[in-house]
Amino acid sequence: MSPKPPSLSLSHHHHESLKKKKYSGLFGDIYGITILPKELELQKNTTPTFEPRFQLPNLNHAFRDFLRTREVGEFLSGALAGAMTKAVLAPLETIRTRMVVGVGSKNISGSFIEVVEQQGWRGLWAGNAINMIRIIPTQAIELATFECVKRTMTSAQEKWKQDCPKVQIGKVSLNLSISWISPVAVAGAAAGVVSTLVCHPLEVLKDRLTVSPEAYPSLSIAISKINKDGGIGAFYSGIAPTLIGMLPYSTCFYFMYETMKKSYCQSKKKKSLNRPEMLLFGALAGFTASTISFPLEVARKRLMVGALQGKCPPNMAAALSEVIREQGVLGLYRGWGASCLKVMPSSGITWMFYEAWKDILLVQRHPL
User: Fold this and answer.
1) Which of 346, 365, 363 has its CA nearest to residue 81?
2) Which end of the chain is more exposed for a tag (fewer CB within 10 A), N or C?
3) 204: Cβ contacts below 8 Å, ≥ 6 apart
4) What is the per-residue pLDDT across 151-182, written as a single tens digit (0 to 9) for each?
5) How many whole angstroms separate alpha carbon 354 and alpha carbon 251?
6) Burial of 138 from C-beta contacts in 10 A (0-12 / 13-18 / 19+)
7) Which among 89, 211, 85 has a CA at the least distance from the CA of 138?
8) Torsion of CA 255, 257, 260, 263, to 10 degrees
9) Is the model's pLDDT at 149 over the cut of 60?
């Protein structure tokens, strides 16, 4: 008896793995049986997906946090205060500039009438567009620099007191103290210098548009002519006398305001000034600073616009000598009345608006 061929017995597990495939070809239909493991079947039926794990940083939160910083709030407060003040006082600025450089009438009312007759009411706002473009960054940079340097200097003095270095020379011991330095005075000087260096070209453009509207009828023409005549350096003409004139004014202005504010609050036992007091103290600070530095302002203006009249003194000392020779000592204060009429309300309104915007933008987030 021949042995039986071994029977093919498939388990239930293998039966589930059997799959029939039908192929059509040259020899008709062919049926084949393929045996696949379950793992391969699952992998075959599953479509692979790719999920990128790289995620862009959320810049919205970073930008929002940046806008909420004290420095940005002070910068915006200064910009808004400067814009609002300049919009109101542009006519006085026009008259003051004309009187300082010796254009037209020698008194305020005569200069006012001349501008209206020659250029109409809009002439009082001549150059106001560039004035606004100039004053917004200037006030923003100036006030933000003042606040930042004042905080830095105050903090440095406090740390210096705790660990004050000493110099021993024989039996003499010297304390290198910096407590005698006024943080407000240093901050005021720094504010004036920084804002002047950044915004001086806009001051040059504003003066050209105000003094010679016939030669410079628009901002674009003024930029083109100045650049053609003297290149980039022409936009910084008079920068040295401007810095010399700005230092005493800026230092005195901020020092006077902060000193009066601190003394008055201590005497009245109050934490801060109200709006009318800010207006008054700001005006007094501007009046004092303008009176002290006004001769330098006259010399600076003469240097800056001297080229327009065909005669430009070589330096500030020569400009001062020229003014004294032509007009006497009182010539150094020609236009001082118009300047005070412009500086006093401008200073008072600027401080009032600045403190108001600081209350809105800063006090709620950064309690003083």
Assistant:
1) 346
2) N
3) 226, 234, 235, 236, 237, 238, 304
4) 999 998 888 777 766 766 767 766 667 777 89
5) 18
6) buried
7) 85
8) -70
9) yes
